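Appendix B, record 7
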Amino acid sequence: MYKTLAFVFSLLCSFACIGQEVTASQKLPTKIQLNTNYTIETTINKGKSKSFLMFSQPIPKGMQVSEMDSKGGRFKFADSILKITWIIPPAEDVFNISYQLVANKCAADAVNFEGSVYFIVDSAKKEFKLNRKEVNCEGAKPSVSEERVGIQSNSSPLKSTKEPMEMEKKTESKTSSVSVSKEKEKSKGVTFRIQIGAFKTKPSLSNVPELSSVDLGNGITKYFSGNYSTRDEAEAHRPSLLSNGFKGAFIVRFENGLIAK
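Structure tokens (predicted):
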């Protein structure tokens, strides 16, 4: 009799401990296109956790994120790592958080997403790891070193001093074509703005120059700074916004006043 009661008590304790564990899952697109915004949603089951909770996710190089819905947590994106921290977790047992992702460039055809949720049970820090997922990146470009290797492998040995001169002419032609394309962009009403973030409620943006916004129609509003005729001009102003605390600031292309698809 006593053995049976002890067994039942032990089983109940096991279930209680399991109930304290935190779990999470994440929705990711199967493909990512360059300069396209994606909403990444994560569902967290906090179990019985009533204190510290942190969601952490490394973001592949060349990609930027901005806050959408952090459920009152502290949002931070630095050194390609996204962190959302709660001293006191949301009241719901199961809640969703979301952020906006955009890829300015991809170093490989496929990138891996993984992450963790950290929590505390009995004064001990624990970790729940998200399932690792591979996402295809369309328009990926090889690194500079890979490009150089490709050029060397496809070219024949230099036979005379004329070849370097021909290469210089090709470079000049390429530079001039870039200038022409920028002029065409201007004539089509193409401009570039720096996106600060996407928010449900307007944050304090009194120190942001040339502030503009776009209402997405779903309760989310995107806020931008500046309106530049070239991407290079926008890139030149982006560091000042980063230093002012807008860590997720990135460049967005507009055509005739609308966000380019």
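Remarks on this record: Residues 162-187 form the longest helix (26 residues). Helices lie at 2-20, 144-154, 162-187, 231-243.
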